[in-house]
Amino acid sequence: MVSVGGFASRLEDRLEGNLKEYARIISKEVARLEEILKDILGFVKEVRIVKKTVPLNEVAEDVIELLSAEFAERGNTLVRKLDASGLDITIDPNRIKEALLNVVSNANQATDGGTITVSTSAEDRGVVVEVSDTGCGIRDEDLHRIFDPFFTTRPTGTGLGLAIAKRIVEEHDGKISATSRYPAGGSTFRIFLPIKEG
Ligand SMILES: Nc1ncnc2c1ncn2[C@@H]1O[C@H](COP(=O)(O)OP(=O)(O)OP(=O)(O)O)[C@@H](O)[C@H]1O
Ligand SMILES: [Mg+2]
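Above are the sequence and the adenosine-5'-triphosphate SMILES. Below is the predicted complex in structure-token form.
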């Protein structure tokens, strides 16, 4: 793929007119295929979980910070309701951040000029992270498919974000679920992670 892309971009530099445009399309499409392949390999690959004890709110803050430019780009406001202050949890922080990143970035992509709320709380034998948005909502007939690999309604989506998030949450013996209102709008994703005794 890298060599196809490389040669296409050399052709693009040398060619003129229509042919130059065709070479540009080849480079652009190769770049898109590379992205898709990266997602698929990330999904297929077995990852070893490396657990650490970390503050739950820090995990949420790190994800919010990573996406702050993207919230601004769509005119969305991020609201924090991080009630789980001082609450530590033993997880693979990088994997859980990846899961949460996928959920929060979906919320942002579904919302324009609205609000994304990230909340954390303690529950009986576990913690909950909830991500709500005021976005377009999810059709009833789609709601049971959103966690399936390759299910997407976005023109540029691969449909792996939620499948990966679900896999990661289940690796931690947790649960992920979604509720939505359509066509009124607004969706809520809930991630439950158990705290194990002993
Ligand atoms: N917060 C949300 N609001 C509305 N629809 C959503 C939301 N989150 C997920 N979806 C729906 O679920 C589908 C699957 O989401 P998923 O993250 O798995 O894939 P994607 O975002 O389409 O592509 P990718 O994450 O691979 O770039 C989306 O295409 C969209 O239809
Ligand atoms: Mg996604």
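The radius of gyration is 20 Å.
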